[in-house]
């Protein structure tokens, strides 16, 4: 067992930081005495710090170490060293060092080092552990044989924390849980339950996964069979497609034959188109010949002669055109030069106007300057200048004089400002000084008034107190008589209480109670024996609870299964054939599901074939529609929004119309030329042959002919342009003839047929989709039914399994009962616990009787106590009044002193009032002077500023005008005006010369244009003659080509080609449809094969291995979870048993100690479980259906009065609280400190009266006697009560005691003394 030997202290609290104080601890008693503040509690704090590492309360920031400021140092080192023996008897020394540093604003504390020194008892070698290599705070409680909570709250409990048994419930629970170490075990129990709960969930999940893996395993096998069938179907379909699509396949051969037939049809179509085109060209040529011949003058010359004439005329035209071009260029050049000259003249006129305006402005500025100077001279009265004879050369002298005047005004204004500022500062300083004096006087007056009010209050209080004390003498005599009467009454009450104690029968009741307690002890021993059989009984309890739980689960599954069988099996519920019935129903539904899925796949394949055909038709329809739209767009571009036949007829009509116009215009030109020639010869009208009366009529007639002839070339040119445009349009339309025929064929035949096929396939697709939706809905319904049957099958299997397990549990329970009967004791721990509770109930009833007897005694005791308090209060009042009589003389002296102070303060107040009387008038006078000064200064400054601004404005006006005048002179603007006038005259002369040259060029251009027109008319006639000759040659060539093509077309058999094309086209379409159907089906099968392969490789990958692994995992987890359940229940019962036993021991010791110690009669706890430490257990059902309960403990300290239990907290006095806390700590130490016999009591007599102090001393002596046989029992008592120390010391258990006191330097010292001294 562990014990402590000695303690070294240095630098802790008030202990010297340079000297070590050592105290030795004796067996079985160590007494430590000292006055308040000597440092006794520091010893307990050092013991607690050395063993636990915990600092005392409220010592953060260095309060645990000697204050560096008292030592006048920045750092203080402290040390605590404890020598002790551990539970094995090994000597150990623990050392803890601290350092406190005083910073500028705060104090910091840190641990330097913690060291644990061990000495081997055999070899004598020493080993050390530091805080760097081991957790010393964890090691020390192990060596001492108690937990850290016991060290803190029981053995070395600080004086401030010693009342923790009467703390609030939450704090009390925390303390007891730490002492019982309940948290560690409940955490272990919770962890086991949490693991079981989590594992149970995992098992359920794994079981579900196992069933899912089994279903997936079966599905994977079915998928492999279906995949093999799909691959075979794909292979057959691919062979047929190869037969159709091969290099020499059926489709390829048909395509070759169709291409040859199409080529023949195209050749026939091309021949027909060429014949139509040639015929159309021949007709156009004939019409052109006819049109040209109408208005043409036929020339007999050969083509060579005509070409020579045309060449000559062309050369002449080129010469004239070049001359005309040269003249036009010169005209453009002259026109450009003329425009430039006109622009330059305009610019010169503009510039001249600007110069003229500036010149006028300069003259005006000179006049304004002179006028302004005269005005300023008159305003400022400059007598040195003559206003009537002011010359231009006097201007600069005047400006200088004005600048001097401006500077003079500025100096006058600055000087006035300086004088004003100086006077203003002097007045402000004087005003501030007066205000400061006035403020000081007011503050002094306020302070004196406050002191006088305070003295008045003190004088009044002293007078009242004196008047009150004047009646004290008579009251003292009356109190003395009352005290004598009350003391006589107290003696009578005490005699009555002694007689009542003799007549009570409490001793017999105590004997009976002791007998019941012996029976309870036997039952506790029997419970200990039954705990040894805990494993077997735990197994029995587990089996029973497991059976109940499984029976409940079985009933739930059975009720759900019966409801399902009612609908599936038509009410046939037989657990022997249940599984086979469900299997047969499941097979039937799965077969039906497989058939419906096959129908769905067939319909899906057919739907894919229809989709493929529909896709081909849509693609063909889209291609042909695109081809039709392209050709129609080409036709629309030429037709310009009209239909092709209408556009073609319009073009032919317009060509004929403009050919006729051109021929008419050409013939009209020749005709009017001949008319003019005849008129010139005969001077009469060429048609009617009439003559003209005079020259004017002849000239008018010739003018009309010339006008008409001049219009002919322009009209002919326009008609030729229109004819050429419509000829091009007609040729383009003829080229589009074949395209128009193709559009007619596509629109009326092929697209109509494709549209019908598309509509038919879309109807078939809608029908197939409806069938697929119906089949898909049937599959979903059947799958749901299959899933429900599979779920029912799983529940049926679970039902049968649990049924077998319950039968096995019945057998196990029977075997365990047989084993327990052989041991000779069939009682369970619960039964023994019930008997124990009955005994406890009887004990409680006896204690109730004792309470009834004690109630009368307590009431008597209460009367005695009240009378004692009354006598004590009267005596205290007597002493107070006696003391107050002695204070009357002192009160008179105080009143005289207060009156003298009042007179002195009144004199000071009068002096200050006299000094401050004139200050407000002086402040007002100074303030008015300052305002007057500021007003005068502002007025004077305004006048000077106005004069300065007037002169400054005059200077600015003169300077502004002078700057503009000088700028004009510097720029030499007079010379620039003359230069501009000369330049304008020169430019106008050059412009007139260019205008004369331009007029001559225009005349020459008109002559050349007239000659060119005549030559062009002759050239047009020659060109028409050559065109007619060419048209006739082209017409003969076209006739020959048409005859050749018609003969070639007759040789080709058009009818047979069309019939052969239709036969081949039908056969080709059949092959294409078959191929499309096969491709769609293969695509569907390949997609199905991909889905099946993907499912096998993803959803069902390694499914066989996963199924076996999951099966092994589920079985092993179920076995593990069952074992954890056994462990949890065994641990829970052990915790409850341990707690019950320990609480019983603690309460027994508390009752014994209370009976021996407490001498009051208000709380009867001698035999009636007074100050009973009870615990309440709360159970919450867990997830296992209530087989185990999670328990927590709540604690309270109660007192029993009669048969009523009440909380002691809040109902006890300060002394009762001290005594209860000490007794509870003693009981806890007796119960939990089996390996550590140390207990320290700090000031145990606080708030205790004399009787309870004596009884506490006797109780402690009794404890020492009982534990004296224990070698390591050490009781450490720290007190300031000398009598209490001698009461314990005279028991011969201590020869020495330690005295703690302070030396002359204020340091705590520890010295040893003999008890006998």
In short:
The protein is 75% helix and 8% strand.
What features would you describe in this structure?
Strands 2-1-4-5-6-7 form a six-stranded antiparallel beta sheet. It has helices at residues 40-52, 68-71, 136-144, 148-155, 169-180, 182-245, 250-294, 303-380, 395-469, 472-503, 506-532, 534-568, 578-639, 644-682, 695-735, 737-822, 829-885, 888-916, 919-971, 973-1051, 1054-1099, 1103-1157, 1214-1232, 1250-1267, 1282-1289; strands spanning 3-10, 21-24, 29-34, 75-85, 91-102, 107-119, 126-130, 1172-1181, 1189-1201, 1204-1207, 1238-1242, 1274-1279, 1296-1302, 1308-1314. With 1317 residues, the chain is of the alpha+beta class. Helix 11 (506-532) crosses helix 17 (829-885) and helix 22 crosses helix 23. It has 25 helices and 14 strands. The radius of gyration is 69 Å and the shape is flat.
